Amino acid sequence: MRSSEKIKEYVKQLAGQAKDSSRKLALMSADQKNGLLKKIAVSIRKNKGIILEANTKDVKAAEKDSLSKALIDRLLLDERRIEQMAAGLEEVAALDDPVGRMLDKRTRPNGMQIFKISVPIGVIAIIYESRPNVTSDSAGLCIKAGNAVILRGGKEAFYSNKSIADCMRNAIAGCGGPENIIQFVETKERSAVAEILKLDSLIDLVIPRGGESLIKAVTEMSTIPVIKHYKGVCHIFVDKDADLDKALKIIKNAKCQRPGVCNAAETLLVDKAVSEKFLPQAADMLKGEKVELRGCPETMKILRGIKAATEDDWYEEYLDLILSIKVVDGVEEAIKHINKYGSMHSDAIVTENQASALKFLNMVDSAAVYLNASTRFTDGGQFGMGAEIGISTDKIHARGPMGLEELNTYKYVIKGDGQIRD
Amino acid sequence: MRSSEKIKEYVKQLAGQAKDSSRKLALMSADQKNGLLKKIAVSIRKNKGIILEANTKDVKAAEKDSLSKALIDRLLLDERRIEQMAAGLEEVAALDDPVGRMLDKRTRPNGMQIFKISVPIGVIAIIYESRPNVTSDSAGLCIKAGNAVILRGGKEAFYSNKSIADCMRNAIAGCGGPENIIQFVETKERSAVAEILKLDSLIDLVIPRGGESLIKAVTEMSTIPVIKHYKGVCHIFVDKDADLDKALKIIKNAKCQRPGVCNAAETLLVDKAVSEKFLPQAADMLKGEKVELRGCPETMKILRGIKAATEDDWYEEYLDLILSIKVVDGVEEAIKHINKYGSMHSDAIVTENQASALKFLNMVDSAAVYLNASTRFTDGGQFGMGAEIGISTDKIHARGPMGLEELNTYKYVIKGDGQIRD
């Protein structure tokens, strides 16, 4: 498939099929949808040989192209990871159905009844990179929420993603279901993405999952609404009235427990009133965890010999054992710093002072704001909301963990017996 | 102001001021915000002379440019319309404050408390055409919901809009408030819109209000999330089991009571089982109301002499006393027609058959679906939700009437006492 006209035709047909099948899916009962998810899980287990074979093809190509070890690790599937994919689908099947919730109900003075009811969004396109498990994870969540899904993965995982998508589609077709609720874009051509993002009459939502450049490109090209799952530049602010033991524990957890994820901390802010006392303790602990420190001039006076943080450091999501440190003049400077350099993801204050806490929680403009707890909790499962398709750093429709409820919209159903407007 | 660099600098500065002031506004109490709205209302009444003078300037220019009578009427202000603007602000002040609602609350097994709380969105840009009252109406709703607003009106209403915006800003400044929560784009240059729509780090949401070409252009250019208030191609379907008297009453109301608005009906669908009986009655009534009819071939066999409907007619929002009519083979063909040609706004079925009703209400993919009531009710006030900034035809964030609650987002506030993740 080469010519741009052909690609345009192809993705349009694909999206049209998704739209048609989404109407059938929207009418399915929870049991029917859960049945499909369980069938898909069985099929993924049964076809693990085929999936691993496809994955080997991708990994060999990646090695030939000299991709980084980290990228190849993200790409790599094994029996354990395939089992996680299957088990993940079963977990989603076990969650409550988000469709058909009565969100509001009112009877008007003229007797007309108005019901606000949750319904599927329709067709969702997922544009993602690397990890092949995103193929089944996001398809599972979309289907459970009643949406058809169009999957466009990264070219380095093309054969793995395709084999997983084929397996899912076959499982649905095998039990007489509408396999077109899962659409896999079967071309590596980059222009396919641009064409998908123009189909605003067929696709209702686009979720890009990946690096900064992918998200930027999708946002610029799309005429379809986009919900961005952007980077997490998360902060821990140690207030002058902090319990310093809690602060140490929280920083260690937020920075070191799993540095490669979006809710890990990247910057430590310390009130200057406690910086001389606290920073040496923090540095000791962090050096023991092999964390590289990069400090502002004030920090460097206290922690001699560490690297200087540049202006760029404050914007940086390291996803690694690196921490930038800045001494600030009280909670208000901390808030200002976070609102300027942060990514509106997750930020925490450590303090025993209720007034400072309130100021921070009110004024920091992020999806999740924490008092005396680790930012690592920003996660659908940890919030007790079930699996999530990602963490939205947007403010429109979904903010923070985006789970099944956020994969729905609503409609107003109005029942009358002949009412007209005066 | 001419050079593109200057315009870019200008709108960036404007949006930066809006962002800064939105942080102050977000912390204001309901009383403080209501105080501002009431002050603005007083100021609009007091400055009606200045506003009318500015409006005369616009109207004279419009007459010189030979704008249509309908456009000039939309543009025209008089004492009554100015009083409506002031009264509208006072009505918004009297509504419940949407900020700070507790949307969810949970305590996790580790003792951490999670609160989901409504908060303002931040900075909202309104790109609109014609009617100068949109300037004060939308600013009032945005402020009440805690958002700063950037106003970009049509060039034909430039001086009217500017005088209203000046009046509002002066009223805020006059009582020591942050007047930068209202920003008016003081240039008619078209490139200003393109520059505004790139400022996704400063502006959180764009709401275009106007014709199809405006909305299309904004959607294509914007990297900021857009909620579209698109056209209303609304349908009334008369089922074979309809109470035909109810049907006549509802069609008359939906088509004729106020044909120029988005929730008026544009297409009548009639089940073929009742078409021979019902269409002549409907045609009699509609001709009495001076409605022009355009029919499908089947309709034209029954209502001889009416105009033929073209394929384009089914997509058309007439906003006028014109109605297209199609005979369909049952509720399923009606649903298919609406989902293909409609604009996902408001659609009604008239029937006494509960099975048909359920099918229609479930399967029609529109913001508001009606059983035995007029589509004219799709309106924040009629739904009992208070004033609205428009009717969203999007599915993301807001669907149907977009009022104060939909002008908010939420954040998660998490309170712990040292919790870390395992």
Topology, pairings included?
The structure is a homodimer of 422-residue chains.
Chain A: H1 4-26, H2 30-46, H3 48-64, H4 69-75, H5 79-94, E1 102-107, E2 113-120, E3 123-128, H6 133-144, E4 148-152, H7 158-174, E5 182-184, H8 191-196, E6 205-209, H9 212-221, E7 234-238, H10 244-256, E8 265-271, H11 272-288, E9 292-295, H12 297-302, E10 307-308, H13 311-315, E11 322-328, H14 331-341, E12 346-350, H15 354-363, E13 368-373, E14 390-392, E15 400-402, E16 408-419
Parallel strand pairs in A: 3-4, 3-6, 4-5, 7-8, 7-12, 8-11, 9-10, 9-11, 12-13
Antiparallel strand pairs in A: 1-2, 2-16, 14-15
Summarize the structure.
Chain A is built from 15 helices and 16 strands. Chain A is an alpha/beta fold and 422 residues long.
Please tell me about this protein's structure.
The structure is a homodimer of 422-residue chains. With 422 residues, chain A is an alpha/beta fold. The first copy, chain A, has two domains: 4-230 and 398-415, Aldehyde Dehydrogenase, Chain A, domain 1, CATH 3.40.605.10; 234-382, Aldehyde Dehydrogenase, Chain A, domain 2 (3-Layer(aba) Sandwich). Helix content of chain A is 44%, strand content 21%. Chain A has 15 helices and 16 strands. In chain A, the strands form four sheets. Chain A has a seven-stranded parallel beta sheet with strand order 10-9-11-8-7-12-13, with helices on both faces. Chain A starts with a helix and ends with a strand. The relative contact order of chain A is 0.13. At the A-B interface, helix 10, helix 15, strand 13 and strand 16 of A face helix 10, helix 15, strand 13 and strand 16 of B. Strand 13 of chain A pairs parallel with strand 16 (408-419) of chain B, so a sheet runs across the interface.
